[in-house]
């Protein structure tokens, strides 16, 4: 009888655990941080929804910038990316969105106000964002 | 319950809210940038349809607004109406910020959209 009772308790705990996992999977998580270096401050905001990630990258200011959407295109490994707001002649941020999806397979909406013709800054922002997404456990780094 | 979720030193202020609208669990996140408000409303785990709403700079006393769908459903006038209501409220409260509104909804009924507008205006703006 004791072992049966033990099994019941174990099952109950497992059910509770899996419910908790589901709840935390489905709740929205917001992460903000800033990186200071040289004369530039990069601000990052990551909002994780269940099936999509929204991120904003701010360079020295809190202007919204241009908005892009990118997602993997099944069944091949292609990535589709488009600019939604701004980004016609100045596509800073488009490359970041595209490469993020290429490396992670996530569905991403990215807002970015990094000025154009700043490839070093773009690369740095992209690297920081990737590192944070990995450390938050939103992606497994593809080998 | 609305929660402020940013460090006071971070330049973007955010508030999150989770509530039931017409039987659907709805997450609302409002972020305030220097020149925009971003309002994400989701019941489906993604941003869904994204709209951009702006006040036009005009000569006349009454402001005019431009509302456009930039991603997603372009044939749902209720979504645009929702964005219009919110940009009008933003304008009436004295701000000239534009609005990016994302609506990832299970239904586009009047009841749901009214619920969203009142939750956003009442609790977050």
Automatic annotation (TrEMBL), chain A:
Pfam families in alphabetical order: PAC4
InterPro entries per the UniProt record, alphabetical: PAC4
PANTHER family hit by this protein: PROTEASOME ASSEMBLY CHAPERONE 4
Stated name of the protein: Proteasome assembly chaperone 4
UniProtKB/TrEMBL annotation, chain B:
InterPro entries attached to this UniProt entry: Proteasome_assmbl_chp_3, Psm_Assembly_Chaperone
Pfam families for this protein: PAC3
Signal peptide: none
PANTHER family: PROTEASOME ASSEMBLY CHAPERONE 3
Protein name stated in the entry: Proteasome assembly chaperone 3
Organism for this UniProt entry: Penstemon smallii
